[in-house]
Amino acid sequence: MGALAAPVTVYRNARLIDGTGAPARAGIDIVVEGERIVSVAPDVGFTVPADATVIDLSGQTIIPGLIDSHVHLATPPNRRQAEAILRRNLYGGVTAVRDMADDDRAVAELARASRQAEIAAPDIYFAALMAGPPFFADPRVSAAGKGWAAGAAPWLQAIDDKTNIHEAVTLARGTGATAIKIYADLPPHLIDAITAEAHRQRLLVWAHSSVFPTRPAEVIAAGVDAVSHICYLAYQAEPVMLASYEDHTPVNEDLLKRPNDPVMAGLFAAMLKRGTIVDATGSLFVQAEAARKADPKRKPLRCTGTTTTRLAAQAWHAGVPISAGTDYPGDDPLWPSVHQEIFWLVRDVGMSPIEAIRSATLIGARAAGQERDMGSIVPGKLANFVVLTRDPSADIANIRSIALTVKRGRTYKRADYVPVRPDEVKDE
Fold it and tell me: What is the mean pLDDT of each run of 10 residues along the chain (428 residues)?
């Protein structure tokens, strides 16, 4: 017997923001067959296939599915909590996330369940972590590697000069990871070796932008694909680099010249040349600064929100690709935290809504190594997009005017969303 034909759906007469940074286009038809986009064209003389489902989107706007470039779903594993957050993300327009190191046994199962549409969730691309031995005293290691000696789990490996790097990367690849995350307490020569071997084995490399004692410029020079936390890049200006990740001395912000620091300008030029993506996680630092003003006893992060925003603006004006990552789940039962990152990119960093949407779509897809399949609305890519009742280019808050999310051709109506309940997200 032959294979059954995939269902065809025509999303007709929409205003399209395609994720590439191009201006919006009105009167566009998107034809979806199965889980792929087969046509994106003006609604002029288009003949609808006889067996197609037609959805009229006159007056509505389509954007690509959003991508949160920095989540943590399983430290420690809590399946009920993770599924609730993922459900909130999907119905909030998020069609993919980049998990930046957790218990990969749990994350791989969530990724499988999402891919099979057994749960309402974005697609998940995840990392296996590598760090120097001192990091493995961190209590998060035992939480995410239960059953393994510290530093011995294939997804949480302690690396030193005695490590067989080829074997370590091979073990990490066996977890199903998309990338190696280089986290902490590694010298430049080991970062170089991990990056080269990971790329040889066709894995991406994601890294903290300062690995300690390795400076940001050395992390960038190693050829990593993406770095997290734009704040950490400011350690490049320190005359003496912190010796370890465990030293949480904040950035000396007085060393950074205003409005544009020349040391950072050199670093951003190197990132631009290499195509290094920065996952800024800016709203995390802004919110932490606000919380600390309300309660001065709260422990400071490595940068203030003000400096984090200024660094992001300088990087953006330099042309550095910025993805939209959060590093916090947020406690809003209705909306994903990546919305706050997008709002920050527009309202604080100064991006236009079109540019911020590109950061949260095409640049996010690139960071996850999935640009071939997602991040923009073009024929051949997955049918991952969001239908909005209001225009986000007029007001970025309109990314919350969601009528439905489409992921891999499946529709998830916002009206069907069940808000996250407190019992779903409590710690086990």
Answer: 73 97 97 96 79 94 98 97 98 98 98 98 98 96 95 98 98 98 98 98 98 98 98 97 96 95 98 98 96 91 96 98 97 97 98 98 98 98 98 98 98 98 90
- SS3 for 320-341 is CCEECCCCCCCCCCCCCCHHHH
Sequence-distant (≥ 6) Cβ neighbours of residue 175 within 8 angstroms: 104, 108, 128, 154, 155
What's the token pair of residue 121?
A: 């969730």
Count structural domains, the chain.
Answer: 2
**Would you say residue 146 lies in a domain?**
yes
Q: What Cα–Cα distance (Å) separates residue 425 from each residue in 110, 122, 332, 382, 422?
A: 16, 18, 11, 30, 6
Question: With the C-alpha atoms ordered 283, 287, 293, 296, is the resulting torsion angle positive or negative?
Answer: negative
Q: Which residues of 355-377 are buried (b: 16+ CB within 10 A; e: fewer)?
A: bbbbbbbbbbbbbbbbeebbbbb
Q: How far apart are CA 256 and CA 228, in angstroms?
A: 20
131: β partners: 158
* Residue 53 forms part of a structural domain: yes
Same domain, 285 and 338: yes
Contacts of residue 368, Cβ cutoff 8 Å, sequence gap at least 6: 67, 69, 96, 98, 125, 178
* Distance separating alpha carbons of residues 325 and 67, to the nearest angstrom: 8
Query: 305-318 and 262-274 helices cross at what angle (nearest 10)?
Result: 50
Instruction: Give burial (CB, 10 Å; 0-12/13-18/19+) of 117.
Output: exposed
Domain that holds residue 292: 65-367
Please give the model's pTM, rounded to 2 decimal places: 0.97
State the Rg of the chain over Cα. Answer: 22
Residue 336 resides in a domain: yes
Same domain, 393 and 282: no
Same domain (yes/no): 58, 69 = no
Is residue 159 one of the residues assigned to a domain? Answer: yes
